[in-house]
Amino acid sequence: MAAPGLIRCKDSDALAVEAAGLVIRCEQEAVRDRGRFTLVLAGGSTPEKTYGALAEPDRARAVDWSKTFVFFGDERLVPPDHAWSNFAMAHRTLLAQAPVPASHVFAVPTVGNTAAEAAAAYAETLRRFFSATANDPPPRFDLILLGLGEDGHTASLFPGSPALRGDDAWVTCSPPGTLPPPVDRVTMTYPVLNAARHVAFLVAGQGKAAALRDVFEGRASRDVRPAVGVRPEHGTVTWLVDEDAATLLCRSGFPA
Ligand code: 6PG
């Protein structure tokens, strides 16, 4: 894996603009090279500004939404209109604002399913979309957006979770982590995250500083700081961080 890239932004607004630009660049590369763009959205609150920036008319016009397909890196086991739903957040900030065909959005089927059933169904959704069988290697998404929890989790891969060892499943379920909301999760696993062409972490706020330093400086195992385990074998990782989150990084962001 190539060394990760680090983009330090003065604040979360600047991070959102930078991240929206990265999405647009990845989309243009993917459509040019492969005729379509497969995008995995991150959940939580940090990406809201990025999705809002991407939905702004000048940026939304830069994306060929007719060739863009949207997936979710993880989801809370709540209905798609629930305040805790990652789909609901993405719909409010981006999917209802930009001309994204509804048939191009693949939400995790959380209604009427247990977390394990929803995970299995979502894995089947991925297999169908990529015309793959259970024996095929994981799908290669063009861009996967991820957040970072204060405990170093990413997607819903929480410290010490059995989901960290879902090495053959593409999607698995996870009990609630120690951070809110206290609800079962469905999450893509390391094999899928690490098959991506591009991964971009969006990290803002002082509360993430210790986890960001630990991940960057290799201070912890992936069992303790699960974001450590995101190391795409044939892909790039870009960290977009604001100065509040970067306070514990050395200037370059990389260990001396
Ligand atoms: C989720 C996210 C999760 C999130 C981090 C950071 O479902 O909560 O997928 O991994 O990205 O917890 O969340 P914030 O952006 O809200 O700090």
Description:
- With 256 residues, the chain is of the alpha/beta class.
- It has a single domain (5-252), classed as Rossmann fold (3-Layer(aba) Sandwich).
- Helix content is 29%, strand content 17%.
- It contains seven helices and nine strands.
- Strands 1-9-8-5-2-3 form a six-stranded parallel β-sheet, covered by helices on one side. A three-stranded antiparallel β-sheet has the order 4-7-6.
- Helix 1 (12-34) packs across helix 2 (47-55) and helix 2 (47-55) packs parallel to helix 4.
- The protein is globular.
- The chain starts with a strand and ends in a 14-residue tail after the last strand.
- The model has no long low-confidence stretch (mean pLDDT 95).
- Bound molecules: 6-phosphogluconic acid.
For the sheet with most strands, the description reads: 6 strands, parallel
Termini Cα gap: 19 Å
Order of helices and strands: EHEHHEEHHEEEHEHE
Could you say what the CATH architecture is?
3-Layer(aba) Sandwich
Shape: globular
CATH topology (level 3) name: Rossmann fold
CATH class: Alpha Beta
Q: What is the domain tally?
A: 1
Instruction: Assign a percent range to the helix content.
Output: 25-40%
- Small molecules in complex: 6-phosphogluconic acid
Mean of all residue-level pLDDT scores:
95
Question: Helix tally?
Answer: 7
Oligomer category: single chain
